[in-house]
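3.2 Worked example (two chains)
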Amino acid sequence: MTKKMTRIVVLMMVLALVFAGCSKPAEETAAPEETAPVAEKITISYSTWASDGEAAYEGMEKFKEIVETESDGNITVNLFPANQLGKTEEQLEQLALNTIQLMSSGNPGIKELEYLALPYLMDSMDEWTTVLNSKIGQKWNEQLLEAKGIVNIGFLPRSPRIVSVNEEINTPADFAGLKLRVPERDYYVETFKAFGANPTPMDFGEVYSALQTGVVSGQENPIETIYAAGFHEIQDYLIITNHIVKPAFVSTNKQFLDSLSPEYKELILKAVDEGRKYAEEIMNKQGADFEAKMEEAGMTIIRPDLAPFVEVTQGVRDTLGTSVWGEEDYQAILEMTK
C-alpha cells in the first residue's frame, strides 16, 4: 500500500471514531425529567353553633376527616364550634365575604327558607327535603344566591326542639307566665306566646347563667344541645313538646365552591352528605342515652299530649306562613307536609 493510500485509510478511521463518539444510542439518551405539578393547598374554615359531643358537630368532624384524607392533605379543614366566630348573623356575613368557607346553622340566610321551622309545620327531615326540592324551594335558593352569594349544599340533623324548665308542664296552660329563653326570632317568640309563656329572646351564650340566676325559668332546644350545654344540671323538668323540627343548614360561599377543581368540588359535596349520614346515626343512638343521663341527674321527663299544643299554634302558622310566603305558596307547602 502506498503512503497516500495509508493516509486515506487512517483518515477514514479517525472520522469514523469521531462520528461514533458524537452519536449515542437512542436508549442511552435520557429525556429531561418532568417535575410533577405541586398540588394546590386549600384551607377551609367551617363554623357552627354546635358544641363537641352534639351529633351535628360529630358530622362536621366526619366531613373534616374525609376531606383531609381523600385530598391527601392538600385541603385543611379548621372547625370552629360553639359560635367561636361570633353570632350566627356575624358568621353569615363572614360567609358572604368568603372569610369563612362553610358554616352550619339553623339560619339558612333568608327568611323564606328559615320559616319552614314554623311550629308543628314539619314532622321530619323527609318533609324538609320534599319542600326544598320543589319549585318553591329552588326559587328560594336562587334568591339566597342572588342576595348573598351563598348556597346551601346539605343538612346536618337535629332532634326536635323540646323544653327544659323548673316547673311541671302537661298542657299549654301550664306555661302561663313562665319566663322562657327563646332564640331571637319571631316564630319562636310567637310560638311560646301561643303556649301562654313569657318568651325572652336571648343569645345562646347567655342562657346557662340566666337559668342559674333565675333570670329565666327555662329554655328550648334539641335534646343534644340541652345535654351538651349542661342545662340538665340546673333544670328540673324536660318537656317533650317537639314543637319545631329543624335541621342545621350546611352553607358555603358560591365563589369559593366555584374556585375548586371538579374533583375537589365533588369531594366537598360527598363529604357533606357523608357527614349528615354519620350525624344521623349518632343522633339516633344518643336520644335515649341523653334522657337516661338526665334522669340520673335528677330531671323528670314529661311527655304531654301534643294535640293541644298543635291547636294553639295554628294561628302562628297561618299568620307568619302567609306573611312570609304569601297565601298561594303557604297552601302549597301545607299540601307537601300533610
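3.2.1 Second chain
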Amino acid sequence: MKPRVMKPFEKAAILFLLKHLLSGVAGAVVLGTGLLLFDVANLATLIGRSEYGLVAAVMLYTGLMVTFGSVAMGIGVMTLNEDTRP
C-alpha cells in the first residue's frame, strides 16, 4: 500500500493547530510553575510533603496543558473567519 502524501492545505492546517497548541502549553507551564513557585494555597508544600508528589505534579501540569492547549486551539479555529485587514 502506497503511503498517503499530505496536501499543502493539510500541512498548513496542522501547523496552524500545532502553533496554537504549543502556545497553550506554554501558558500552562507558566501558570503551573507560578502556582508552585508562589506556593498558592500551599500547593507546593502539599506536593513536597506527599509520598505521591511527583504524580501530583505530573497530573497538575498535564491537566493544565490539556485545558490550555485545547482552549488555544479552539480560539484559533474560531477566529479563522475574522478579517484582519484594517
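3.3 Remarks
The CA atoms of residues 24 and 68 lie 5 Å apart.
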